[in-house]
Design brief:
globular, mainly alpha, ABC transporter involved in vitamin B12 uptake, BtuC, 275 residues
């Protein structure tokens, strides 16, 4: 099969488009999370997603609507993490670890009650971007549009709380509202990303493209664009290679993300040595 023939398949077209939209959202949000030292929130929400998927599967929700059904539960988990971290009695890592453990525990218990780890649950654990349906594609587009609107409209506020939250608060920025928006959007991104890379690798989509872009030492807006570029490039390369070589798409996408990071990191180190 020729490379161009792959694009004639409807499921590949949906996978590429949905993957690009979800990767862009994850990269944009991941940049803010990394700079605010909330990198592990992706891992915590991924584990919460596991518990949420187990809940909706046990209830008997159609697999066609699993993503939509899991969203409210993961959003509640993100708000719980925010409340715990903002209380100042529990640090961010401990709060994320607590919610993460709860999600895994609930998921395992419910999976055992429903007769063990079935095919549907495994597909969400390891991802299958090639099975994206029209509902998930439409949801990905709306989330992408929403995140892009928030980032553009609230850019100054997001920038301020990312680098100095106390200063931003003294300047009149409603830091609480912005933090809630950021956490909720990250929860939505985590749920969508499970279709791309699987629950086990969600944090990679949130962290790696942004981390790669940060190695370039560019202006903040340019770094955002670079992060999206790396994320979309990894999705396209990952899906095409996975389809041609019969590999798991999610894991292949993550490997390309890591390859991009190592390449940029190596080039940066070499340029430093030359100087």
């Amino acid at each position: 099969m020729g490379l161009m023939e792959i694009f004639y398949y409807g499921f590949v077209q949906r996978a590429l488009l949905a993957g690009a939209l979800i990767a862009s959202v994850s990269a944009l949000l991941g940049l803010f999370l990394i700079l605010r030292r909330f990198s592990l929130i992706g891992d915590g929400l991924a584990h919460s997603t596991f518990g949420s998927v187990a809940v909706v599967l046990l209830i008997g929700v159609s697999p066609f609507y699993i993503t939509l059904a899991a969203l409210p539960l993961v959003m509640v988990s993100s708000l719980a993490i925010y409340k715990l971290t903002s209380s100042r009695t529990i640090n961010a890592d401990a709060a994320i670890g607590m919610i993460s453990s709860l999600g895994i525990a609930i998921g395992i218990i419910l999976a055992s009650l429903s007769g063990g780890f079935n095919v549907d649950l495994f597909s969400y654990l390891f991802g299958n971007i090639l099975t994206v349906n029209n509902t998930e594609l439409l949801l990905s587009f709306f989330v992408f549009a929403g995140v892009l609107f928030v980032v553009v409209y609230f850019y100054d506020e997001l920038f301020a709380i990312t680098f100095d939250q106390e200063l931003a608060q003294s300047m009149g920025v409603k830091t609480g509202r912005m933090n809630v928006i950021l956490f909720l959007l990250t929860a939505i991104a985590a749920v969508l990303a499970m279709k791309v890379a699987g629950i086990m690798l969600v944090s990679a989509l949130l962290i790696l493209p942004a981390l790669t872009a940060l190695q370039l030492s560019l202006k903040f807006r340019t770094t955002m664009i670079a992060a999206v570029g790396f994320a979309v490039g990894a999705v396209f390369c990952g899906i095409l290679f996975a389809f041609l070589l019969n590999l798991p798409a999610g894991a292949t996408i993550v490997l390309f993300n890591i390859s991009f990071f190592l390449l940029v990191f190596a080039v940066k180190k070499l340029s430093t040595l030359k100087i």
